[in-house]
Amino acid sequence: MRMTARTPTGGPGNGTAGTATGLRRGNPAGEMVIGRHDRRVAGRVVVWLVLGVALAAALAVPWGLSGYWLRILTSTFMFAALAQSLNLIAGFGGRADFGNVLYFGLGAYTTGFAMQHGVPLPLAVAAGAAVAAVVAATVGVPILRLKGHYFAIATIGLMEGTRELVTNVAALGGGAGMNIPLVRIEPRVFSLVMYFVMFGLMLAYTGVAALVARGSLGYGLRALKADEEAAAAMGVNTMLYKVAAWALSAACTALVGGVYAIWQSFIEPRIVFDVVMGTEYFMMMLLGGPGTVAGPLVGAFALHILSVLVWSRFLHGHLAVFGVAMVLIVLFLPGGVVPTLRGLRWRRAPAWAVARGAEGGGG
């Protein structure tokens, strides 16, 4: 007796014809798949259009801006880059590195010290990133064994200890700070250069976050974040992944710190090792969505622009506003803006697809 294999959709053969037959008969599952695919394609087109418009605006806007708003946007890009750097260890890896600003300060001071001794500007900035990565890899082995609030307290203690050390080293200017050799170009041109450098760092770090999210490092970090013991039991080298992520995060943060030192031409310990600043871009990452590619950018733009507007009206109360904002984020957006919007989209999609399928089946 001859038998013919049939697919679940009712069509004969290897499944292609069956799928088509199922769709012609108004199969809800088939229409759901097509509906989801169409929505994904449309979503990607919208994302790329928005990114294209934003990129064109970022390249065109600074030429007509006043010096004040040019500086505001430059600092916004800087905070977005810092939030994206922190995202590598805190977002993907789930490690609350509240002392991440340590590497910002190390990058700033290493760059300034190197430039004072005649090292070319690009090499000085690269040296700052290298020093930060080495420090993170060295202290990471013992500190990354800690978890939760113990790890957070350890990173803050490490940062505070480094600040006190720098404050008492005469070769680094001590508490009086350090002057950075000036870049001798016209002030307006210098401001534009800093604008585009910070913008470039923000884009580059977003690209790094996208690569990490889709690579083995990202999968390993997400496994550690979900359950470190289970990941270790399955053969994941947990310490290697944690140290690699922290060193990468430190290098990226230090690179921004080096550019900041050149931009300001003067640094001091209380500014570049400021725990409030570190907490600020930690909040930006939380607001946008830790462990996402776009989240730190969304959080940085929303929170920094808000802080500028609040600071301009409430000079002594803006820190209280940040405190309230952090409480609201934890209570109402624990996953961040981007994951929340994504969750709403996926909750709507199945209901819409099933409704379409039901209409087709009823006809």
Secondary-structure blueprint:
Blueprint: H1 16-24, H2 28-60, H3 67-91, H4 101-116, H5 121-143, H6 148-167, E1 178-179, H7 187-214, H8 216-226, H9 228-233, H10 238-264, E2 266-267, H11 269-272, H12 275-288, H13 295-313, H14 318-332, H15 337-362
Antiparallel strand pairs: 1-2
Helix pairs in contact: 2-15, 3-7, 3-10, 3-12, 3-13, 4-5, 4-6, 4-10, 5-10, 7-8, 7-10, 8-10, 12-13, 12-14
Tell me what you see in this structure:
Helices cover 76% and strands 1% of the residues. The protein contains 15 helices and 2 strands. Helix 8 crosses helix 10. The N terminus and C terminus are likely disordered.
Q: Could you give the order of strands across the largest sheet?
A: 1-2
Please report the total strand number as a whole number: 2
Alpha-beta content class: mainly alpha
Radius of gyration: 25 Å
Order of SSEs, N→C?
HHHHHHEHHHHEHHHHH
The low-confidence parts are: 1-25, 349-363
Helix proportion range: over 70%
Give a short summary of the structure.
The chain is mainly alpha-helical and 363 residues long.
